[in-house]
Amino acid sequence: MLAVMSEKTIALVTGANKGIGYEIAAGLGARGWSVGVGARDEQRRQDAVATLRAAGADAFGVPLDVTDDESVTAAVQLIEERAGRLDVLVNNAGVAGGWPEEPTTIDVETVRRLVETNVIGVIRVTNAMLPLLRRSEHPRIVNQSSHVGSLTLQTTPGVDLGGISGGYAPTKTYLNAVTIQYAKELSGTNILINNACPGYVATDLNGFSGTQTPEQGAAIAIRLATLPDDGPTGQLFDDNGVVPW
Predict the structure, then answer these.
(1) Model pTM?
(2) Which amino acids are annotated catalytic?
């Protein structure tokens, strides 16, 4: 298995059983990559893998709850045994609170849940996977962020980001800040790490109210996952280019 895997780019996409994450996995799989479908729900994970394989992708399931240390450790062991390294990590898994959600009335437990998945989960998975990523010749990390996490856009008159968000939006701002620090620490390595803004995509995260399809939303993450060695790092991108922090 390791001999076969050494000839392919190995990727892991968290939260890949549906929506944008699934389309990211599909896009990378269409490039001939071996793609791990990270997901908590066993049936949805198996269904996603089966659909991807039916379309010709080399997909494999990775049981993964980004909020659970043991689950993440097991995911590392699975990829270690299957491929011996990891070339691309896409931290796509995320949750949303209510919307709009005012900070003066938000439940503290809601904030804690959002931070645990959207920020700490990314840190947990990234740090656990780094030893495998360091074995890659062209390692890439892509974190799924959002325009709502941009402090510049949030404070620009006339820019409508959908109302007040006392929970979800700040977690994406936090994630942006964390990514900058990763980029600083990894600046002397060949690991490129960037954040992606998929746009306003119709998914269950927003009650399918978005104006773009999941496939369209996946495009920027796929682009960042396939950056050349001299590509950018430590930045926030959407389909049109760099997004201000």
Answers:
(1) 0.94
(2) 168
